[in-house]
Design goal:
- By secondary structure, the protein is an alpha/beta fold.
- The chain has one domain: TIM Barrel, CATH 3.20.20.
- Helices cover 51% and strands 10% of the residues.
- It is built from 11 helices and 8 strands.
- The chain has an 8-stranded parallel sheet.
- Helix 2 crosses helix 11 and helix 6 runs parallel beside helix 7.
- The relative contact order is 0.14.
Length: 290
């Protein structure tokens, strides 16, 4: 993909965060899932870091290497025509210099956006200081813009998801961080773990920036999130885990009863899926020669 085309896709993705129509992103973990979603008409593809890690044999939480993560992102980006935003955890580094390298690598992979977390490990003690996280965001913004593709940054805080710190102060700390991340150059801010309608409404108003909500059990439906002003709703590893749940149900039925009632229920016909992949392979070949 040439730089001009990639820059246009970044602009397309940025414009989708307009808060009048929620950008819904059922995250993909491989080319097949990305192609199915693209074919349904989704205007962008977001990847799931956990889903890719699971598919490649790693637990979630930055156990996979940056190069392995971006290899799958690149495969997806070559296979679809819509913008791709990559879930990059905390970008597999701890310093602004690491962020500069990550920004360049993301662009080389063909993605035009990224999720950036503010924790680097499994406990709340790994949460990055706000000042350093702001510097990381500024670095990604400056380096990617200098490279000709101003990446769409979705800056995430795990205050509610992990959770981190006293419950009574979580709202104020979340707002403080997300405002700071937006001021540092993030296009969208992300508060996974928030599912209460009233709390989402308060966050939308307090943050005053495009807000991403993680759709999870108990979360309001998309039309309600849109009414609340949520700019982006993503599913994380949910679609991938539900798919694996189906695999388990099929395997259990075959093992226990020898029947296959779950096997073909809702399955995409072979010829249809084969055609999706044929077109993906053709697009990949065209990209390689452009």
């Amino acid at each position: 993909m040439n730089t001009a085309m990639q820059a246009r896709k970044a602009d397309e993705l940025r414009k989708l965060h307009n808060r009048t129509r929620t950008l819904v992103l059922p995250n993909a973990w491989d080319v097949a899932s990305a192609r199915v979603l693209e074919e349904l008409g989704y205007p962008a593809i977001a990847t799931t870091s956990a889903g890719i890690a699971f598919a490649l044999g790693y637990p979630d939480g930055q156990r996979i290497s940056r190069d392995e993560m971006l290899d799958m992102v690149a495969r997806i980006a070559r296979s679809v025509s819509v913008p791709v935003t990559a879930d990059m955890e905390s970008a597999y580094g701890k310093t602004p210099a690491d962020m500069a390298d990550a920004a360049k690598a993301i662009i080389r992979a063909g993605a035009v956006g990224l999720n950036l977390e503010d924790v680097t490990g499994d406990t709340e003690s790994s949460q990055v200081e706000t000042a350093l996280q702001k510097e990381k965001i500024r670095t990604i913004r400056e380096v990617s813009a200098s490279a000709g593709v101003s990446l769409v940054i979705n800056a995430r805080t795990d205050v509610y998801l992990m959770p981190i710190g006293p419950e009574a102060t979580r709202f104020e700390r979340t707002v403080e961080r997300l405002r700071a991340y937006h001021a540092a150059g993030a296009d969208c801010v992300f508060a996974p773990g928030v599912i209460d309608r009233a709390l989402i409404e308060k966050l939308v108003k307090a943050v005053a920036a495009p807000l991403n909500i993680l759709v999870s059990p108990g979360c309001p439906p998309i039309p309600e999130l849109q009414k609340l002003g949520v700019a982006r709703a993503s599913i994380g590893s949910g679609v991938m885990r539900t798919t694996l749940g189906l695999v388990r149900r099929i395997g259990k039925e075959l093992m226990e009863t020898g029947t296959s009632s779950a096997l073909f229920a809702g399955a995409i016909p072979f010829d249809e899926l084969n055609e999706l992949m044929r077109r993906a392979a053709s697009r990949t070949a065209e990209t390689a020669h452009s």
